[in-house]
């Protein structure tokens, strides 16, 4: 399956270019945000379209609230 190299996601007026070709099983990324439900609502369609199995969790990292997304096997 050919994936677009970069997909732009805008979460709370901040643009994130994620290189999905480098998002391998076991990797994760963190999106800092206050409205985590809105952030997940933006991310889910992209992840579904790419058919990635992921685990998402609302976390606080270094005092910053946000969403961490891990890619799972499958």
Summary keywords:
74 residues; alpha+beta; 3-stranded antiparallel β-sheet; two-stranded antiparallel sheet; 1 helix
Report the strand count.
5
Q: The biggest beta sheet, please?
A: 3 strands, antiparallel
Helix and strand run: EEEHEE
User: What general form does the structure show?
Assistant: globular
How confident is the prediction overall: mean pLDDT?
87
Strand order of the largest sheet: 3-5-4
User: In terms of structural class, how would the helical and strand content be classed?
Assistant: alpha+beta
- From the N-terminal CA to the C-terminal CA, the straight-line distance is 14 Å
Radius of gyration: 12 Å
Tally of helical segments: 1
Unreliable stretches (pLDDT < 50, length at least 5) are none
Helix content: 10-25%
Classify the beta-strand content into a percent band. 35-45%
Entry summary:
This protein has 74 residues and is α+β, with helices and mostly antiparallel strands. Helices cover 20% and strands 45% of the residues.
